[in-house]
Amino acid sequence: MNESVRDVVVVGGGPAGLAAACAYGRAGFATTLIDRRAAPEPARDETLVFAFTSATRDRLIDLGLWADVMEDVWPISGVNLQDAISCRAHVFRARCGRAGLLYSIGYGELRRRLTKLAASFPTVECIHGRRLAALPLDGTARRVVLDDGYALRTQLVIGADGRRSTVRELAGLSSRATDFAETALTFTVAGRSLAPDTAIERLTPNGPISIVPLGGCRFAVAWIDSTARSQRRRTSTPARLLAELAGALDLDSDHDLELVSKITAQKLSVANADRYVAPRLVLIGDAAHGGHPIPVQGAHMAVADVHELTTLRRVDRSRFASAETLACFQRSRRLANAARLGLVDVLNRMFPPSVAPLAFALPGPDADADRRPALSLGAHVSP
Ligand SMILES: Cc1cc2nc3c(=O)[nH]c(=O)nc-3n(C[C@H](O)[C@H](O)[C@H](O)COP(=O)(O)OP(=O)(O)OC[C@H]3O[C@@H](n4cnc5c(N)ncnc54)[C@H](O)[C@@H]3O)c2cc1C
Questions:
Q1: Of 28, 186, 308, 374, which sits 20 to 30 A from 21 (CA to CA)?
Q2: What pairs with residue 182 in β-bridges?
Q3: What pTM did the predictor assign?
Q4: To 10 degrees, the CA torsion angle through 307, 309, 310, 315?
Q5: Closest atom of ligand 1 relative to the 286 alpha carbon
Q6: Which has the closest alpha carbon to 289: 307, 271, 274, 267?
Q7: Are 152 and 164 in contact (CB under 8 A)?
């Protein structure tokens, strides 16, 4: 049977896989992206939202993805870091000349925009609605066999198929996971009781709450708490959920927040694959590593993976899939990710929320107005 021959096959059409397909497609590589889900439609009720930092923005610019995909996204000019336990808080503002300190975009909208961009490159083909079935090594190439028997030959398989990665499993790459006792609820609210240009990171005795403005008075909420409390909130009425949220954020009782999306729950864990590479194969994004949504920021790590992989490829194009190039990628990214994931794990074990290190890093409620907190995030700080 004739097989399609491609330079790169990306399995997984989430942020990591799509960014990789766009980067290789822009460079003229014959690239196929395979995703088991249908091609994304315009997203209406986003429950998962990314707030990209300036560092991730710079990487996306370097990859040539910012202007096409993110140019008109909502800039967030400040982050209000609040410690509800010690009643300390500080607002970090974007440096002069920067529109935002963070840039927010919903998962569905990001996926839709990246899919459209990937499909605009003449060397990229996107296959939706089909799953990976087998990945045998065949001489110096990999065969990629889909569930309907369709097969491709490629020099490089990029496994970007998320935390339960089939690519990782078929390649025999093991992964270590640590489960946390908390669950994250994510949903979107609308209203004028919150500032549309400022994100909130609030540390409560039960866990952090993150509020990310999405534009148009909509806000993405990620609320981390014990699994029991999260499950109870998920099944309570919207009015009760919003009353609890307003209480946890110290909003007035006459707040105007309304729930405008479904609620999703995700049990938290951190995981890191023992190896990211095998012959003619590399893992990126959540397939390689996954973590706690607020401090670890999986999308940032995914963009950093793609940036590193394609920067190495730019150094020596003829060897983009060689064992040396892949080993070099693994050395730099696995170490960086392990350090980040390890820190979250250690902090989680050492500090219950009520003694979180944040409490010591911010000035107290009656501190001098111009005293600077120990944390600076590379931004201007206002009391
Ligand atoms: C509650 C919650 C909140 C979060 N908040 C943030 C945040 O604020 N900021 C942030 O940066 N990160 C956040 N994250 C993490 C972030 O969602 C992930 O790190 C990110 O989505 C990883 O992208 P990915 O492309 O690697 O994987 P995914 O987004 O999981 O995409 C994997 C893709 O692979 C496809 N696929 C899977 N198996 C197959 C197969 N066998 N064949 C073909 N296709 C397949 C799937 O359909 C999917 O499209 C959060 C996560 C959670 C759970």
A1: 186
A2: 226
A3: 0.88
A4: 120
A5: 26
A6: 271
A7: no
User: What separation in Å is there between the alpha carbon of 342 and the centre of ligand 1?
Assistant: 20
Cβ distance 340 to 296 under 8 Å?
Answer: yes
* Cα–chain center distance at 238: 27
Q: Strands, DSSP E only, in 41-174? A: 49-53, 74-76, 78-83, 88-93, 102-106, 124-128, 132-134, 137-138, 141-146, 151-159
- Locate 322 and state its tokens: 């060689």
> Would you say the CB of residue 340 lies under 6 angstroms from ligand 1?
no
Q: How far is the CA of 272 from the centre of ligand 1 (A)?
A: 15
Strand-pair category, 198-204 with 78-83: parallel
Helices vs. strands in the chain: H and E counts, helices first: 10, 22
Contact criterion met (CB below 8 Å) for 95 and 380? yes
Q: From the CB of residue 352, how many other CB atoms can be counted at a distance below 10 Å?
A: 11
Classified by CATH at the fold level, domain 4-44+107-178+271-350 comes out as FAD/NAD(P)-binding domain (3.50.50)
Distance CA 232, CA 224 (A): 13
Of the candidates 71, 76, 117, 83, the one whose C-alpha atom is nearest the C-alpha of residue 99 is: 76
Tracing tokens 């995909």 back to the chain, one arrives at 69
**213 strand-pairing partners:** 219
Percent helix, strand and coil across the chain, each to the nearest 5: 35, 35, 35
What is the pLDDT tens value at each position of the chain, 383 positions in all? 568 999 999 999 999 999 999 999 999 999 999 999 998 887 767 778 888 888 898 999 999 999 988 877 888 988 998 988 888 888 888 776 666 788 888 889 999 999 999 999 999 999 999 999 999 999 889 999 999 999 999 999 999 999 999 999 999 999 988 888 889 999 999 999 999 999 999 988 888 899 999 888 999 999 999 999 999 999 999 999 999 999 999 998 889 999 999 999 988 888 899 999 999 999 999 999 987 655 557 888 999 999 999 987 776 788 899 999 999 999 999 988 888 777 766 666 655 554 444 544 444 444 433 333 333 333 333 33
DSSP H or E stretch at residue 200: strand 198-204
The residue whose CB lies within 8 Å of the most ligand 1 atoms, and thus the one to mutate among 11, 286, 292, is 286
Task: Kindly state if the Cβ of 184 falls inside 6 Å of ligand 1.
Answer: yes
